[in-house]
Amino acid sequence: MTAPSVYAPATPQKPERKTEPAVKPEPPSAGPAFDPKFEVLVSGNDIVITLMGTSYSVTYFKRKNSPGLFAKDITLKDDPHIPMTSAEFLTGAWKLANDKARELGWIV
Prior knowledge:
By secondary structure, the protein is an alpha+beta fold. 18% of the residues lie in helices and 20% in strands. The longest helix is centred in the last third of the chain and has 19 residues, at 86-104.
């Protein structure tokens, strides 16, 4: 029987490494999907856009001799109960208000 060499220390065998294809876990259910429902209301010279079930609302109007719409009563604070920010709401509201204004003949 030979003694282990001083220059070659004995190392334990490394266990065989097995790799399996990664399986991504299902994301947790966040409850019902958010389905925004915009309401468009024309009241006199105003187009009021609201997002049902939220605090989001904005009113658009057209000034005489102006080529486009102006906004007033603008929602600036995010509603913490929904995933949509106020900026995202205003983007959608602007598009809806312009479509309605074209339909009414207010803008070209």
